[in-house]
Amino acid sequence: MTSTTRVAPMTRRDWLIPAALIALATIPIIAGVARLVMLGTGAPVPDRFVSAPIPVVLHILSATTYCLLGAFQFSPGFRRNHLRWHRGAGRVLVGAGLVAALSGIWMALTYAIVPADNALLHAFRLLAGTGMAVSIVIAFVAIRRRNVSEHRAWMGRAYALGQGAGTQALTQLPLILAFGPADAMPLALMMGGAWALNLGVAEWFIRRRPEAGRRPVPAGVPSGAHA
Q: How far are the Cα atoms of 42, 132, 151, 162 from residue 98, in angstroms, in the given order?
């Protein structure tokens, strides 16, 4: 007698979660693609990007991959029905997320602080990049130990930090339209606040997850099953 795996139908919530996360990433993705096109065609871009294009190109490509691919990892139904895809995408996300985080740190450490920025925003960028990289490493170690709860929690925190640019666009745009371009300090506080808001939302979801989803992976299940 052979057993068959029943595929549960996708619910509206299963589609709304990735759709919302992709929508959140739309503005920074469009801006990043436009910057790559400008770099490739020789259109005017900031001098620091022309003199050292590698970190910004790596950052745009990896962050775009991370935000788009990662959105589907937060859909319970999609994860359940496409477990092999979930495992493969998880491995890609670890690499893309680390490249995005480390290239962001690279830019923060090597690019000159422009007049629109300040030391506080510089520190926020370093903290966000470091926090994202550390979260991904902890999540990877957790899934190798078959600790699904810890893995999901830290990947959630990493993704929240990776989506910072999307939230920053949403929080800044209404204020800029209403009051004009912000000075360096308000800009730094708005951008830092967007990262903090994302982490707060992620932490809320992590802590409200049912205990049933916090069990370690059984010994017979491959350690990459939830990566």
A: 29, 8, 15, 10
The amino acid sitting at 25 is A
Distance separating alpha carbons of residues 28 and 33, to the nearest angstrom? 9
In single-letter form, the type of residue at position 54 comes to I
Residue of 107, 93, 137 whose CA lies nearest to 32: 107
Residues 6+ apart with CB under 8 A from 206: 152, 153, 156, 157
Angstrom distance (rounded) from CA 105 to CA 126:
6
Q: State percent of the chain over pLDDT 90.
A: 61
* In contact, 128 and 121? CB cutoff 8 Å: no
Going from N- to C-terminal start, the domains of the chain cover 12-214
The mean pLDDT of 57-74, rounded to a whole number, is 96
- Between the alpha carbon of residue 33 and those of residues 57, 62, 122, 162, the distances in Å are 10, 12, 23, 17
Residue ranges with strand state E in the chain: none
pTM of the model: 0.85
